[in-house]
Write a structure and sequence with these properties.
By secondary structure, the protein is of the alpha/beta class. The longest helix is centred in the middle third of the chain and has 20 residues. The protein starts with a helix and ends with a helix.
């Protein structure tokens, strides 16, 4: 083959390789690198709910014990039952963080209620939760978005809750505290597509989804929800759940199982968390509590779960 024919053939071959679908290109390499970097960037601290700490200790000593056994933070219900200055003193003496709160009124006063007086009360309660969370140095409040029952149809609940949550946007923006809407057994927003659409319909960057990994196993797969919700995920709650125990012993018995002894595919879940570049910084246990020994085991179990991050 003559030199000019060889060069021509090589050029055609190289061009064909670059253009061929499915082959590695500079753009694909860049995309893969970004995904890998996003996964590496995921950092996660461990927290637990204050009500899970069942040792008879002072507030400061509870904080210190939780820190000693490996937790980084404690989540409180709000509006707060403790004075803010008392919480801050315990925080500073122990080194524990207070990253989040859970609004405690959203079940008895649902945002989806057709009664305007009930919606007014829950809006006031969530607004106070936002202020409380800011005061203790946190960054997010968990809120159940609504409840579907015989008094509120699914469609009515959707739009009533949507409009009620939009009323919270000024308070969210003024405090800078995020709201995370959680998937619970409330007969509402039962698929990741609905949850995604609901958040998008609110259209506020500070209002997203608080994803409970165990709650969703009753009707879905956590890793699928995570990929669909993606950057909309504000925080994570950790639970284990057993479909077998639910079927054989009753619905709520599904939660009565240790981490990695149920149906959560934790490697798959954490892989999805890494893929979406979760930036909420925390994973908080919401399980039955106990004394130091039980909570220490939970801390170790959570370390194992976190180790599955890519």
């Amino acid at each position: 083959m003559k030199r000019r024919d060889f060069i021509k053939s090589a050029t055609v071959l190289t061009t064909g390789m670059v253009a061929a679908p499915g082959l590695v290109s500079a753009e694909n390499i860049s995309s893969l690198a970004r995904e890998k970097e996003s996964a590496k960037a995921v950092k996660m601290k461990k927290a637990l709910g204050y009500g899970m700490i069942q040792d008879d200790l002072s507030l400061v000593d509870k904080f210190k014990m939780v820190k000693e056994i490996g937790f980084d933070g404690i989540e409180f219900n709000s509006p707060l039952e403790f004075p803010v200055d008392e919480l801050l003193r315990a925080r500073d003496k122990s080194g524990i963080e207070l990253p989040t709160t859970v609004n405690k009124d959203h079940w008895k006063l649902p945002l989806s209620s057709p009664d305007p007086s009930i919606r007014k009360k829950i809006l006031e309660s969530v607004t106070q939760s936002l202020k409380d969370t800011k005061a203790i140095g946190g960054d997010a409040v968990l809120v159940v978005p609504g409840v579907v029952n015989k008094d509120a149809s699914y469609e009515e609940a959707y739009y009533t809750a949507l409009n009620a949550i939009r009323e919270l946007i000024p308070a969210v923006e003024s405090t800078g505290i995020k709201i995370g809407l959680e998937n619970v057994w409330n007969n509402f927003l039962l698929s990741p597509l609905e949850a995604k659409q609901f958040v998008d319909d609110i259209n506020c960057p500070l209002i997203g989804w608080w994803f409970d990994i165990g709650n969703v196993l009753r009707y879905g797969w956590p890793e699928q929800w995570i990929r669909t919700l993606n950057k909309r995920i504000v925080k994570l709650h950790l639970k284990e759940f057993s479909i077998k125990k639910m079927n054989e012993e009753g619905l709520w018995k599904g939660f009565d199982v240790d981490i990695e002894k149920g149906d959560d595919d934790w490697p798959a879940v954490m892989k999805a968390v890494g893929e979406v570049g979760y930036s909420g910084g925390w994973i908080t246990a919401e399980v039955s509590g106990g004394g130091r020994e039980k909570l220490a085991k939970l801390s170790r179990d959570m370390d194992k779960v976190i180790s599955y991050l890519p």
